[in-house]
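FIELD: query
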Amino acid sequence: MSTKEFKIVASPEKGEVSALLLCPESATHLLVLGHGASTNMRHATLAAIADALAERKIATFRYNFPYSEKGGGRDPAAVCIETIRNAVKAAHEAAPDLTLLAGGHSFGGRMTTTAQSEEPLENVKGLVLFSFPLHLAGRPDTKRAEHLVRIKIPMLFLSGTRDELATLDLLEPAIEKLGRRATLHKADTANHGYKVLKKMRKSDEDVFAEMARVLKDWLVKTKI
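FIELD: result
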């Protein structure tokens, strides 16, 4: 296992942000992984995702958005999208032999799908969305899914059955509309941050290990 820290240019006006490459031996794929709205690339949830994926020979390239690097209010969507494009480019340059994927947890995933819907991310073969935030908590809506129909590459959604930002009665039909391009895996009893109800959960498998296994199987099935 190798770990390497980088500085990448987010955008000309925002300057550099931090990035972190976690690459297991004999890795097959590299996932460019964006963080949630109020966190950063070192948050426990993103670290748990990266560690679990490493066990399945999937490398990760985590990065900060400018506002999480330097403080202040959230950056405009255009800045976040430019940061994602630059992170994807930097990740490919760091490990050009690995098949490239992109996505993230919550906000990072939504910004990645938005970027892909506007203009395909270079060299990216599939999108992986951890807890896609379909709507605000307590305010059910599906407008955030409207751009997904413009995405032409495979998408994997990994959503908890208790996710307060993506109720299943709205998420399931939204993903069904996307047809064969989209796959939904429901993590039993997990909420938006993947906390589970152990006494009610049907499986003893760690939720992050479960998602890494599902992702690996999805890559085989979709031939990415």
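FIELD: remark
The first strand starts at residue 2 and ends at 11.
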